[in-house]
Amino acid sequence: MGAMPVELKQRMQKQGYHFVGEHSAVKICEYTANGIRGKTLCYKYTFYGIRSWQCIQGTPAIGCDLGCSFCWRLIPEEHGFKWNELNAVSKWDDPVLIVENMINEQRKIISGYKGGLEDKLLLKRWEEANSPKHVALSLTGEPMFYPKMGALLSEFHKRGISTFLVHNGTLPEALERLNPLPTQLYVSLQAPNAEIYEKTVRAKIPNAWQRFNDALAVMRRLNTRTVLRMTLVKGLNMCDPEGYSNLIKIAMPNYVEVKGFSFVGGAREDTRGLNLSSMPDHQEIKAFASELSRLTGYIITAEHSPSRVVLLSRDEESKKKRIIDFSTIGKTS
């Protein structure tokens, strides 16, 4: 096992990553900065009531067992690094240390955003941003690699911080034993069938498709808010709505997010084979979401055109409860 190569770490730091301990990181989200500046807020605000300016974007595990074509992150192998992401950590950091340092690092990042803020509302937002109320464990890598995820979630919840955990679906056994559960669990729905899955995710592990299907079955049984998150790429995985509908029916999540791919960051690498024309526009996303609604019975509930994303709800009960009651965070976990 070896530490992350210094040059790779430096590249990520130049891209805005702030490292926390040995294997965790935070990076300010565009919508967090927008929230402080009074600009367009994240779709999570529209869909679930998440206050963008009080959101941390982070991960407790930088490594990943997939190399998704559409991913905006830097994939080490594409830059000549032989570092084995899957065996990179010899000792895992304590959950309390990670949570405290993520919050402290977030405060350092936003400290520079106060300058120039004269509007009282925006100054109030900046002050509120120093007391995060939400964390999206989705920054990079596969967060579920962190073996103390339950304890990490518990530490966030103790502080009244809601948690969105995004999982790629390759660790169904870890998902099965996860306790407590996040406020909202996402599983990425990357493809409608095995053939397109392999082309899209470029798995670094065997049996990834079967493991993903197993994770969907586990997801169905979990007693928390659940979401299947789709990133649709024209010419790659934006096809076969029947295949997607069958997978949705296995997991039966509360919500499905149908989102358009963005040609940014690592997705621009020549080895990915993507370009600007791979990006569906919002109307194309709405049409695909409408077809999924017809096939699954899910209800079109909301949309966020700046992000090119449409929200589907499983039923009227899920639709009614899509805005999170933040007063309950930490009291039901």
Summarize the structure in words.
The structure is a single chain. The protein has 333 residues and is of the alpha/beta class. The protein has one domain (6-328): Aldolase class I (TIM Barrel). The chain contains twelve helices and ten strands. It has a ten-stranded mixed beta sheet with strand order 1-2-3-4-5-6-7-8-10-9. Strand 7 (225-232), helix 10 and strand 8 (255-260) form a beta-alpha-beta unit. Helix 4 packs across helix 6. The relative contact order is 0.13. The model has no long low-confidence stretch (mean pLDDT 94).
Within the largest sheet, what's the order of strands?
Answer: 1-2-3-4-5-6-7-8-10-9
> How many independent structural domains?
1
The tally of helices reads 12
- Taking all Cα atoms into account, the compactness measure Rg is 19 Å
User: How is the biggest beta sheet arranged?
Assistant: 10 strands, mixed
The N- to C-terminal Cα distance equals 34 Å
What is the top-level CATH class?
Alpha Beta
Instruction: Please identify the structural class as seen in this structure.
Output: alpha/beta
Low-confidence spans: pLDDT under 50, at least 5 residues?
none
Shape category: globular
Number of strands: 10
Oligomer: single chain
Order of helices and strands: HEEHHEHHEHEHEHHEHEHEEH
In CATH, what is the homologous superfamily?
Answer: Aldolase class I
Sheet-strand content, in percent, reads 15-25%
